[in-house]
Amino acid sequence: KAVTCEAIKGLIEEGEEVISGSDAGPVRDAGLIACGQAVEHYEMARYAALIAWAKAGGNTQIVSLLQQTLDEETRTEKSLAALAQNHIDRAAAMPRKAA
């Protein structure tokens, strides 16, 4: 049975607020990357907990599968962080030209 995750729902709403509350450009991009990172961190925490439970239950096959997913989430978060640090954050920090 599918269950709505209120935490993820809240993180999605936060992203929607960034979109509706800012103009397109590097500041919005920086905000959206931060929202994406928050989702990744939440997912990483959940997968880490599932891995701990699977280890406690001696279920090594499940541990392996969950670890693969956790590794993927970690790579995604690192990619978002690199994008922000190497491109977006600098552009977002630049003073905007008057229209």
| Shape call | elongated
Quickly count the helices: 3
Please state the structural category: mainly alpha
- Uncertain segments of ≥5 residues (pLDDT<50)? none
Spell out the blueprint of helices and strands.
Blueprint: H1 6-20, H2 26-56, H3 60-93
What does this structure look like?
This protein is mainly alpha-helical. The chain is built from three helices and no strands. The longest helix is centred in the last third of the chain and has 34 residues.
Which terms would index this structure?
99 residues, elongated, mainly alpha, 0% strand
Summarize the structure.
The protein has helices at 6-20, 26-56, 60-93. The protein is mainly alpha-helical and 99 residues long.
